[in-house]
Design a protein that fits this description.
It contains 11 helices and 9 strands. With 257 residues, the chain is an alpha/beta fold. It has an 8-stranded parallel barrel with strand order 1-2-4-5-6-7-8-9, surrounded by 5 helices. Helix 3 links the parallel strand 4 and strand 5. Helix 6 (145-156) packs across helix 8 (186-203). The chain is globular, with a radius of gyration of 17 Å. The termini are close together. The chain binds 2-phosphoglycolic acid. Residues 9, 173, 178-179, 217-220, 238-242 line the site of 2-phosphoglycolic acid.
Length: 257
């Protein structure tokens, strides 16, 4: 059975370590399905706490019953030195992260991250041994997604070698669907995922396009998760708001089984 990725993007939540512990404990209260790569992306400040409390050696939590992977929500592109406020890829790797989300629309549009910066971050992530989860998507419903996705993918992956691309995950997240309660239609999400594969296939080789995990994100809930995750061409979901509700998030994981 093909592996499905479920990523919990906590964004700038929760506001206390106690609450972060409660969330992870809640997720681990159930045995997680084997075919799922469950990835938690807490704020930087909780990465160590989540790891220390719940990750035994080798990445398994609670005696190996469940395995959860850790992702950062961002990474600096500098390696070290005088860059106040920045966190390097090596720091993330050393703290136990396997993944990092790069190019999330909230960083692109609310913070002003450009494709050039995203490209530098992707290069830094690959160099540090992290697996990047590149988020892309059109801003408005009805935007020309062929143009938008082509431009984002080509600029974000500029100069990145085929030898690294095998570690990439792409999350197709239409910006208008993020945090709005207005999810994409499963058909449109699937055709966008196919478009992503086509662009990657043209840039690299068709083999990469076939193997590339392409996820959907944007108002995924327990109600609609199965419609997205259940499609063969969609390899999982990037979940924001619903990942902060234990009951709902556990249902989403179940659907991915
Ligand atoms: P949402 O966020 O599920 O709250 O829409 C998704 C995301 O930001 O990745």
């Amino acid at each position: 059975m093909a592996k499905k990725y479920i990523i919990a993007n906590w964004k700038m939540n929760p506001s206390s370590s106690e609450e972060a512990i409660r969330l992870v404990r809640g997720i681990l209260s159930q045995t997680l399905p084997k075919n799922i790569e469950l990835i938690i992306a807490p704020p930087f400040i909780y990465l160590d706490l989540v790891k220390k409390n719940f990750f035994a050696k080798g990445g398994s939590a609670f005696g190996g019953k469940n395995e959860i992977k850790l992702a950062a929500q961002n990474v600096g592109w500098f390696e070290r030195g005088a860059f106040t406020g920045e966190i390097s890829g090596l720091m993330l790797k050393n703290i136990g992260c396997d993944y990092v989300i790069i190019g999330h629309s909230e960083r692109r549009h609310k913070i002003g991250e450009t494709d050039e910066m995203i490209n530098l971050k992707l290069k830094a992530a690959f160099k540090s041994g992290l697996n990047p989860i590149l988020a892309i998507g059109e801003k408005e419903r009805g935007d020309d997604i062929i143009k938008v996705l082509n431009s984002q993918i080509k600029s974000d992956l500029y100069g990145i070698d085929a030898s690294e691309i095998g570690r990439l995950i792409i999350a197709y997240e239409p910006v208008w669907a993020i945090g709005t309660g207005l999810s994409d239609t499963p058909d449109h999400a699937l055709s966008s995922a196919l478009l992503v594969r086509k662009i990657i296939g043209n840039l690299y080789t068709p083999d990469f396009a076939i193997d590339l995990p392409v996820l959907y994100g944007g108002s995924v809930t327990a109600e609609n998760a199965a419609d997205f995750i259940g499609q063969t061409g969609i390899n999982g979901a990037l979940v924001g708001g619903a990942s902060l509700n234990i009951e709902e998030f556990l249902k989403i994981i179940k659907f991915a089984e």
